[in-house]
Amino acid sequence: MAKKAKSEEEGAPAEEAPKSRKKLFVIGGVVLLAAAGAGGWFFLKKPSPEQIAAAEAAKAKKPATFLEMKDMMIGMSNGGQQDRQPVMKIKVVLEIADAKASEEVKPLLPRVEDAFQVFMRELRPSDLEGSAGMYRLKEELLRRVNLTVYPAKVDAVLFKELLVQ
């Protein structure tokens, strides 16, 4: 009898193993079906070439507008040197996607000029050396103008003139 009791106790875990295996197959099947469904949905959601071409054509039809800012003459940081303070003369043009956004930006130009001047006063002439310095200046001005004119968006900051003396 003692052996029968042991075999009955040992039999219980043996029966649970097939149940857990079945449960694992069911859960695995559900996960597999969900993944296949999600993949199919993403594949079918992809726009057709005609839709892509129509969207690109709509973008191409809208000409960008350019908004010229006033010339700015800014005294730059001299980096702790006691001699002459360097001066920057800059003329900036803002590229904006459409005329509506351009009209939203125009009343905010004094704020944009202020943001530019506050930033550029802290620059040193060495910050503008080479094309990398010019690119960093352009990117920083674009970031600042977009923060100032939000929710409108400026696409690019273009330099018409930049002189450092």
TrEMBL record:
Keywords: Cell inner membrane, Cell membrane, Cell projection, Chemotaxis, Cilium, Flagellar rotation, Flagellum, Membrane, Transmembrane, Transmembrane helix. It is a single-pass membrane protein. The keyword Disulfide bond does not apply. GO terms for cellular component: bacterial-type flagellum basal body; plasma membrane. Its main location: membrane. InterPro entries: FliL. Controls the rotational direction of flagella during chemotaxis. Belongs to the FliL family. This is Flagellar protein FliL. It comes from Bosea thiooxidans.
